[in-house]
Amino acid sequence: LSVCFRMVEPLEYYRRFLKENCRPDGRELGEFRATTVNIGKHGTHGSITTADGSALVKLGNTTVICGVKAELAAPAADSANKGYIVPNVELPSLCSTRFRSGPPGEEAQAASQFIADVIENTQIIAKEDLCIASGKLAWVLYCDIICLDYDGNILDASAFALLAALKNVQLPSVTINEETGLSEVNLKQKNPLIIRKHPVATSFAIFDDALLIVDPTAEEEDLATGTVTVVTDDEGKLCSVHKPGGSPLTGAKLQDCITRAITRHKEVKKLIDKVIQSIKPK
Length: 282
Prior knowledge:
The chain is of the alpha+beta class. It has six helices and twelve strands.
């Protein structure tokens, strides 16, 4: 009976669980799915062999990989002392039946924009730190975030994978030869990126304009009347609130989201630190 009921009346089926303060997958309303992160060992370049840094994040079934590739380029004329960070989120058809092959759809574009905003707003990396020689040479970091399995909450997983991959990047030292004006790359001497902030995203689905549930699955996102993502940093400061339409949130509800996001930040940071610690050369 419940399988039929779930198919015919998914929202009603769902509400019966919410009344009991739980969800069909057994989680409480404020409970996140099991979260894991794998960061590659230095020298092997992590999960992706061609990348300068990479990470794989799992949030329940949602699986995202981020590879960071570093290239050299001339800085833009109007920002001679800055490098570039170019994020891109891909939701290929292989990760879910809801996505088609071809150019990026609306959801992938929105996710890419969200990640670009997180990088910009939080100054996760200062673009000045990517400059090698003012007006002459700078690093470009291409951050490709690819979803391998989609089951909701792509924003939290993408932001987490980006941060973990950036913490894994090792860039060779580069100097410009005074006489020839050419750049010289020393692959033997590598330095980690300076990560200035550790932004963490925490997403909520809003049910019946009132109930908040954390870390929604794809099914929960479909049934929800809205979603909201809160980004916080190391000091518990609010970096941004991303709310694409849907039901409005009261100030008190938003405050509740921020409080939960600060707790989540500590958990995610602990996870990353633990993994980074485990891959450090002994």
